[in-house]
Structures are given as C-alpha cells and as structure tokens.
C-alpha cells in the first residue's frame, strides 16, 4: 500500500477496483487484520444539538470538529455568519490548518486544537445582535478539494429576573402602610366618639 494516514492504508489500484457505489470522494478505505473497513473520509460535526441558547452578556463556545482520512495538510476551514437563511453569509474567520500562529480578534477567538481535529470558536460577551446561524466549513485539497460544512443556530436570551424578593418587600411595605392607615382611622374614630360623649 502506498500511503498511511490516520490508520488508513491507501492504495490507488485497490481504490479503482472498488464497486461504483463505494468509489466516492468522501469514503476512506482502511485495511487491517480484520479485513476491509469503510469509513467516512471528510466530515464536519458541531455536536449533538445544533441549537445553542445562551444568556446575553455571557461567553459561548461554537463547537466544530472534522474528520479526514486523507490528512489535513494545506486544508482550510472558515466560519460564516448569517442572520437567517435568506441573508448572505459573512465570513468571520478563515484559517489554514498548517498555520501555527493564529491571529485572534477581540471577540471571536479560535480555541480549537488542530492536532485533535478541533476548529471551535469562542464568542466573548455575546449580544442580541450575535443571534443567527454560524456555519463551520472545511475544505481539503487532499480529498479533491471537497467542501463540507455544518451549521449552529445561536439564540441570545435575556436573563429571567427572580422578582420574589421584590414582591415580598413591596408586600411588607404595603402591609405596614395599611396598618398605619387603620391606626389613624381608629384614632380619628376614638377622638370623634370622645367629643360626642363630651357634648352630651
């Protein structure tokens, strides 16, 4: 076999003799002691839940990992942002995986680990304007420049305020004021009765 990448032994001659339904650019053929194994060659994943809901003002991790059985030398990944599916995507990050020195922006930080196939981003102190669709894309020249992507929907919500203490304070103040009013009414009533009795 000619090449070995991520545990996959690659042979062009064997590849060309595969049945048509297996001869796809996104399939990796692995040969081992147990025989022939077919696995997905190029894939991007953003976790089990593609919808992330966070509080306004907090930091949020946008997870993204990739798999490639042909290696990722010279590969490129990028993130794009869309307000919704009808809006044009705006590129927020593009990196070549062979680059070691990664320049960070103020609020958008690369926190992944290329050696572990992790290309996640971190958004600092998100605002309501950050709500939208974030798409992680991966292009690998080693796999016929195939491009794969996955999308995360980010929803920013306002923190729910617990008004229990406020209601208790207001209720206490109301009860106190009510008691004072009752006392004043009783006092006036007593004074009125005393005056009436005195006149008689």
From TrEMBL:
One of its GO terms (biological process) is regulation of ventricular cardiac muscle cell membrane repolarization. It holds the Pfam family V-set. Residues 25-153 form the Ig-like domain. The keyword Membrane applies. GO terms for molecular function: sodium channel regulator activity; transmembrane transporter binding. InterPro entries: Ig-like_dom, Ig-like_dom_sf, Ig-like_fold, Ig_sub, Ig_V-set, Myelin_P0-rel. It is a single-pass type I membrane protein. Keywords: Disulfide bond, Glycoprotein, Immunoglobulin domain, Membrane, Signal, Transmembrane, Transmembrane helix. It is found in: Membrane. It comes from the Eukaryota. GO terms for cellular component: voltage-gated sodium channel complex. The chain crosses the membrane at residues 165-186. This is Ig-like domain-containing protein. The lineage of its organism: Eukaryota, Metazoa, Chordata, Craniata, Vertebrata.
